[in-house]
Design a protein that fits this description.
Layout: H1 20-23, H2 30-35, E1 50-54, H3 63-76, E2 81-86, H4 91-95, H5 107-112, H6 118-121, E3 123-124, E4 130-133, H7 139-145, H8 155-160, E5 169-174, H9 180-188, E6 191-197, H10 202-219, E7 225-234, H11 239-252, E8 256-262, H12 266-273, H13 277-280, H14 285-299
Parallel strand pairs: 1-5, 1-6, 2-4, 2-5, 6-7, 7-8
Antiparallel strand pairs: 3-4
Helix pairs in contact: 3-14
The protein binds adenosine-5'-diphosphate and magnesium ion (MG).
Length: about 300
C-alpha cells in the first residue's frame, strides 16, 4: 500500500468567519462529565479493527462530517483508521480532497470484481494514520447488482476483512437509506454510531433505524451493538434545539455521547478545504468536540 501523503494539510485561516455558534455559552453539565473520560493510552500495535457503521437513513444529519472528523481525531490519538465511503454520492471522498469521478477503482470494484484487492483501492489521506476506501456513483449500481449475489449482505464484510489487522478502527459512512448497502455495513460492523440532528422529526426516524439494527442482529450479525447517539447541528442559541436535545437524552439516556456537535459554518468550510476540522481549525469548538467524541468512543 502506498502511504505517501498526497496533500499537505493547510493551516487554519484565522478570524475570517463567524464562530459565534461555537462560542456562545450554554451551561452544559456534560463539560464536567467529559473531564472524567480517560485519555486514551498509547498503542504499540494495531488491529483487529473495531468496525463502526455511521448510520442514519435521514440525510444531512452529519454522518459524513462525523466520519471524517471522528476518524481524524482518532488518528490524532495514534490510532490507525480506515474510512469507508459507502455512499454513492462520494461526499466522504470529496471531503478528503479526492475527486471521486476520476478514480479508476473504488469500493464498487472491490464488491463486484473478484480479482480486485482491497489494498489496490485504499488511498492515503492528508491525515497521518488515516486511509480512505473511496466510492463514487458506480456504487449505486452495486445495490442493484448485489441483489442477485449469494451472500449479498456480506459483500462489504468480505471485502474489508483482509485489512482489518492494519487498523484500530474502521468507520463506514453509510448512505441515507436502509437499503442493501446500509445492511451490508451493519452486517459487518461491531457497533453503530448514530448522528442525530437536534431538530424536530429527527427522533421519529431513529425508531425505524433501531428496528433495522435489531433485525440485522437477529438474522445476520449477533455481535452488533449500538455504540452511541451523537447530537449534531446543535444551536445553543435556540430553545428549540435545546429542547430536542433534552428529549434525546430522555429517550436514550447513557447511549447519548457527552460530546455535542454545534451547528457552525466551520463544517461546510472544511468540505471545501477537503480536510478535517482537526487540521483546518484545530482550536475550534468543533475540533474539540470531535476529540472528546474520539475519547468517548475509545472508552466505550
Ligand atoms: P449526512 O452525511 O448525514 O448527509 P453531512 O455530514 O454531509 O450529513 O452534513 C450535511 C451538510 O451539513 C454538509 O454540507 C455539512 O458540511 C453540513 N454540516 C455537517 N455538520 C454540521 C454542523 N455541525 N454545523 C453546520 N453544518 C454542518
Ligand atoms: Mg453523507
Amino acid at each position: 500500500m502506498d502511504t505517501t501523503r498526497p496533500i499537505e494539510p493547510r493551516r487554519e485561516q484565522l478570524g475570517t468567519e463567524d464562530d459565534t455558534a461555537d462560542s456562545v455559552g450554554d451551561p452544559r453539565p456534560e463539560q464536567t462529565a467529559a473531564a472524567e473520560i480517560p485519555e486514551p493510552a498509547p498503542l504499540t500495535d494495531h488491529g483487529p479493527a473495531r468496525v463502526i457503521a455511521v448510520a442514519n437513513q435521514k440525510g444531512g444529519v452529519g454522518k459524513t462530517t462525523s466520519t471524517i472528523n471522528l476518524g481524524a481525531a482518532l488518528a490524532e490519538c495514534g490510532r490507525r483508521v480506515l474510512l469507508v465511503d459507502f455512499d454513492p454520492q462520494g461526499a466522504l471522498s470529496v471531503g478528503l480532497g479526492v475527486q471521486p469521478h476520476q478514480l479508476e477503482t473504488t469500493v464498487y470494484n472491490l464488491l463486484m470484481e473478484r480479482d480486485v484487492e482491497v489494498d489496490e483501492v485504499i488511498l492515503p489521506t492528508s491525515v497521518e494514520g488515516m486511509d480512505l476506501l473511496p466510492s463514487n456513483i458506480d456504487l449505486s449500481a452495486a445495490e442493484v447488482q448485489l441483489v442477485f449475489e449469494v451472500g449479498r449482505e456480506q459483500a462489504l464484510g468480505r471485502a474489508i476483512k483482509p485489512v482489518l489487522d492494519h487498523y484500530v478502527v474502521v468507520l463506514i459512512d453509510c448512505q441515507p437509506s436502509l437499503g442493501l448497502l446500509t445492511i451490508n455495513a451493519l452486517a459487518c460492523a461491531d457497533a453503530v454510531l448514530i448522528p442525530l440532528a437536534c431538530e424536530f422529526f429527527s427522533l421519529r426516524g431513529v425508531a425505524l433505524l433501531m428496528d433495522t439494527i435489531d433485525k440485522v442482529r437477529d438474522r445476520l450479525n449477533p455481535n452488533l451493538s449500538i455504540l452511541g447517539i451523537l447530537a449534531t447541528m446543535f444551536d445553543p442559541r435556540t430553545l428549540h434545539t435545546r429542547e430536542v436535545r433534552h428529549r434525546v437524552r430522555d429517550a436514550f439516556g447513557d447511549l447519548v455521547f457527552e460530546a455535542v456537535i454545534n451547528r457552525t459554518v466551520r463544517f461546510p468550510e472544511t468540505t471545501v478545504a477537503g480536510e478535517p476540522i482537526t487540521t483546518w481549525a484545530p482550536t475550534s469548538a468543533g475540533a474539540t468536540a470531535y476529540r472528546l467524541l474520539a475519547r468517548e468512543v475509545l472508552a466505550r
